[in-house]
Specification:
The chain is of the alpha/beta class. It has three domains: 2-67; 76-84 and 352-462, Aspartate Aminotransferase, domain 1, CATH 3.90.1150.180; 100-344, Type I PLP-dependent aspartate aminotransferase-like (Major domain) (Aspartate Aminotransferase, domain 2, 3-Layer(aba) Sandwich), CATH 3.40.640.10. It is 43% helix and 17% strand. It contains 19 helices and 16 strands. The chain has helices at residues 10-14, 24-44, 53-67, 93-105, 124-134, 145-156, 178-184, 200-210, 234-244, 260-263, 271-276, 302-310, 312-316, 321-333, 337-343, 345-351, 354-369, 411-419, 445-462; strands at 76-77, 81-83, 138-142, 161-165, 171-173, 176-177, 188-192, 214-218, 248-253, 281-285, 296-300, 375-387, 396-405, 425-426, 428-430, 433-436. The strands form four sheets. The protein has a seven-stranded mixed sheet with strand order 3-11-10-9-8-4-7, sandwiched between helices. Strands 2-12-13-16-15 form a five-stranded mixed sheet. Strands 1-14 form a two-stranded parallel ribbon. A hairpin with an 8-residue loop joins strand 12 (375-387) and strand 13 (396-405). Helix 2 (24-44) crosses helix 3 (53-67). The longest helix is centred in the N-terminal third of the chain and has 21 residues, at 24-44. It is globular, with a radius of gyration of 27 Å. The two termini are 34 Å apart. The protein binds pyridoxal-5'-phosphate. Pyridoxal-5'-phosphate binds next to helix 6 and strand 9.
């Protein structure tokens, strides 16, 4: 115990020359954390010796320097998972940057009509575009699609019985479970059909015999039932709803704004399809297949959208000016489908040809081959993923660079070093190889991945 007294004391550290340009409070906070850790390590036996005052000062200085790096920061996604929820889903690309900077910088006409000088609506900046792209009468935007679902049900189904297929009572992620959302919205759940088969007559039965007043369809997004199955399309449901005067609501989760032929993908219905098929209100995520920013986009019948806009809940889930600026910029690209495909990074990444990925993988492999001594570097075929719970059964054939150690080097250690590096690079490990997928690398990031490897191998060379 006597030795613990040998730990440098706080006042001596605060006066250390290393910290002469750093505010005393910052040094104090970092020092007390470092001293606590040293004390614990020493007491538990994890550390055998106590550092000198100079060594201590270095540790504290390093801690202060680490704290200067922002917590939320950019990284390179080399996983081949395009809409990686943990990595912020859709990347936005360069255009958005320039267009949005103006709004970031100062004041803006968020709720102000320049023409009249009157108060305006924040939804107005994107409503016309959403209507144009979906064919809907009216539209609004909220914080995310979970909020869109809550608002839609809370306003249009509160106190009512909501019919939904048992095959669509899904959990989307963590705490978003469709049955719970329905109950939270003050609606009553009427389960229809079975897990694998639901027919139109099951909905009719729910309406005639169980008093269902609202028909809800939810896209199952992150899973698919195969085999002996049957479900009711939004077109059939909408036709039935219209004939019986019942609102038909559709949580589409992830949907495209572009036809899937345009993207060369088997990707199902677009928002426009669902509106054309007669859904009264649809909602979907802005940062899944739309490739914009975290938002919930709601579109449909004017009277219903109006009711939602006026509801107090709308205030609690409204988007901010930065979100709207990004969304408007991205939606404008969609006016020219070819442009959207090229310039919305999510769409470009999903529709890129495997041959092009192979070319990029080869280029990257050549760069890494010269850097990664002791590792076999080659290109291999992979299956990339859409991610974000979208298109779980649409495989994306791709190519990756695979690194395998020739000796006893560890693949997990390499993964960790890349992740903890100056510019973090997130990779996949598959069958004992470190995989780097060019699909999710943005313009110029291949070179930066090579830089990250260079830094790691240079350090190893020294150590
Ligand atoms: C993803 C998803 C949600 C939640 O959307 P967020 O934008 O993540 O809030 C809700 N419903 C469905 C069907 C989804 O796929």
């Amino acid at each position: 115990m006597a030795q613990l007294n040998a730990l440098p004391n706080m006042n001596a550290l605060l006066d250390h020359a290393r910290f002469k340009d750093i505010p005393r409070e910052r040094v104090k906070r970092a020092a007390s954390e470092v001293l606590d850790r040293l004390r614990d390590d020493f007491m538990s036996g994890a550390a055998k010796h106590l550092p000198t005052i100079d060594e201590c000062a270095e540790l504290i200085f390093a801690k202060i320097a680490r704290d200067d790096v922002p917590n939320l920061r950019g990284l390179i996604n080399a996983t081949g998972v395009v809409l990686h929820t943990n990595l912020g889903r859709a990347p936005l690309g360069e255009e958005v940057h320039a267009a949005v900077a103006e709004v970031f910088r100062g004041y803006c006409n968020l709720e102000y009509e320049l023409e009249t000088g009157q108060r305006g609506s924040r939804h107005a900046h994107v409503e016309g575009l959403i209507c144009e792209l979906t064919g809907a009468q009216a539209a609004m935007v909220v914080n995310n699609n979970a909020a869109a679902t809550v608002l839609m049900l809370g306003v249009l189904a509160r106190g009512k019985k909501v019919a939904i297929s048992r095959g669509e009572l899904v959990e989307i992620g963590g705490s978003f479970r469709v049955p719970e959302i329905i109950l939270e919205s003050g609606a009553e759940l009427v389960e229809v059909g079975t897990t694998n088969k639901t027919r139109l007559r099951d909905y009719a039965d729910a309406v005639s015999n169980k008093g269902a007043e609202v028909l809800l369809k939810v896209h199952t997004s992150n899973f698919e039932i195969k085999g002996f199955t049957e479900s009711v399309s939004i077109a059939q449901l909408a036709e039935y709803g219209a004939a019986n005067g019942l609102p038909v609501l559709y949580d589409m989760g992830a949907c495209f704004l572009l036809e899937s032929e345009m993207l060369g993908l088997q990707a199902g219905e677009t928002a426009r399809d669902a509106i054309a098929d007669g859904a009264d209100v649809i909602c979907f995520s802005g940062d899944k297949l739309v490739g914009a920013v975290q938002t919930g986009i709601i579109a449909g019948r004017a009277d219903m959208i109006e009711a939602m806009k006026k509801h107090p809940l709308a205030r609690a889930v409204r988007p901010d000016k930065l979100t709207l600026a990004v969304l408007e910029t991205v939606l404008r690209l969609y006016r020219d489908p070819g442009e959207a495909r090229r310039r919305v990074p999510t769409l470009a990444m999903l529709s890129i040809e495997p041959e092009e990925l192979r070319r990029r993988a080869q280029e990257l492999a050549e760069a890494l081959g010269t850097v990664c001594g002791g590792w076999d570097v080659e290109v291999c075929e992979t299956t990339d993923e859409t991610g974000g719970g979208a298109l779980p059964n649409v495989p994306l054939p791709g190519w990756a660079v695979a690194l395998r150690p020739q000796g006893t080097q560890s693949v997990t250690e390499l993964e960790q070093k890349l992740r903890r590096g100056h510019e973090p690079v997130i990779i996949r490990i598959h069958n004992g190889a470190a995989l780097i997928s060019p699909r999710t690398l943005l313009h110029g990031q291949g070179e930066r991945v090579a830089d990250a490897f260079r830094r790691i191998f240079a350090e190893e060379g020294q150590g």
